[in-house]
Amino acid sequence: MTQGSTLLVVFDGLRRDRATPDIMPNLARFMEEGANFINSRSIFPSETRVAVTSVMTGCPPADHGLVANQFYHPLQPEAPFKTAEWEQLEMAANAGQLLDCKTMGQRMAENGRTMAVVSTGSKGASRMMNSSAHALNQPVFTVHGPPVSTEDLHEVITAGQGDIPAAGAPNSARVAYATDALLDFIYPKFSPDMCVFWMSDPDITSHQFGVTSPETVVAQKTCDENFGRILAWWRDGNGPENIVVMSDHGQITGACQLETVDIIPAHFGKASIGAFSGIYMDDPSDGRKAEVVDWLVEQDFCGLVFASAGDGTAIKGAFPWTAVRNNHARGADVGFTLRSTNSSETHDPKADECIFAGGIPVGGGMHGGLNKGELSTVLAAQGPAYRTQFPSDTPCWLPDIVPTILTTMDLPVDGTSGRPMVEALAGDDQKFGQAPSVETRLLSVTHKEHEQFLRQWVVNGKTIVDCGWTSGRGAWGQ
Known about the structure:
Blueprint: E1 6-11, H1 25-33, E2 35-37, E3 40-41, H2 48-57, H3 61-64, E4 70-73, E5 76-82, H4 86-94, H5 104-110, E6 115-119, H6 123-129, E7 140-142, H7 151-161, H8 172-190, E8 194-199, H9 203-209, H10 214-235, E9 242-246, E10 252-257, E11 269-272, E12 276-281, H11 286-296, E13 302-307, E14 334-338, E15 353-356, E16 365-366, H12 372-375, E17 379-382, E18 390-392, E19 396-397, H13 401-408, H14 429-432, E20 438-447, E21 450-459, E22 462-472
Parallel strand pairs: 1-8, 1-9, 2-18, 3-19, 6-7, 6-8, 10-15
Antiparallel strand pairs: 2-17, 4-5, 9-17, 10-16, 11-12, 12-14, 13-14, 20-21, 21-22
Helix pairs in contact: 2-6, 8-10, 9-10
């Protein structure tokens, strides 16, 4: 293994406040014993493909360009571009319009290092864990098989372990199968310098049954048991130097479904409706955007609104896209979240609720917006590169993960927008410098009695969103 070799273990959709010792004892102990980033956050929109791309590029959507799970792409202007679909991602990649930033896989290849992916996540999420893996001849194994998986690797693993189990909720059988593949095939054969191991639970189960349901608890426990197997193997001297654990987002409860997703007047333009929704306007002039925002803030379903004028400043009644680091040319002209019961200071997995557009039963888990329950993530690390028993309260977010791993590998971080979290690395201040400066600021917009709030941390001059919420006229669920 080379310096800083790392296994990145992902618990999809795990809220930090659900990673408790009674449900997930292995993870809870790992967090307590290592460097534990207690103020870690997702990105916006807090959707899986956006999140994984932000991790693997070390950049927010404003820089990498995958701006939502579903959006109107210039290559496909008449129908939503669906990042869950392998074929659509392949189309954009072949046209050079998938990502605008270098990925971790590309960085590993450029520096003579190796990388592998093992995933039970969706086809699209698995692709974005290493979007150029096949071209770079870097191994990928997923439960979906080729073309997502490396074909010959898929054949070897299924020949050794048998057929991949059917999907389920909990997805326990697939998570266990993937753990076997990681320990018995990927590391013995490839000994990767960087490896991503992605568990699709508790996200899958929470979507179907709810954040705190008995089924989701079982899913969490199963993921934790398999993580325990990985830890035992690692502590016996196998695998990488370091293990980093994370979640890509949290979840809240989808309590009220829209009767229809046809909620935006057709004369505004095309709309992609979800927990995060985007409007792609036929006339994106500042005046026309102002008309759309004026209409939106009077709708009961409307949460936080985002729209920028031609000079980058906010349209009246909205936050500018820069406030959430999603000001990319492929982004929507006007965006908004569906309203939730989020608040500034507290969040409770049994009480955080939102309006949702579909895809889950009422009571199922949902994410995509700015509720603290959606943005609060797990992030912790152990190994010789990291401090022990170190709870770091310095705010951080998904784009900070890869720059930190690169720093432990003594590789350059140029081209990333994230910050190496040097305060948690083993070593002295002379090597890594002083702890970052942190400020907190609250942005607010009030328009037509619609009150919106966005709390940011400013870390070394760059913003991270803590959470956002609405109040005032028509405050749903209040």
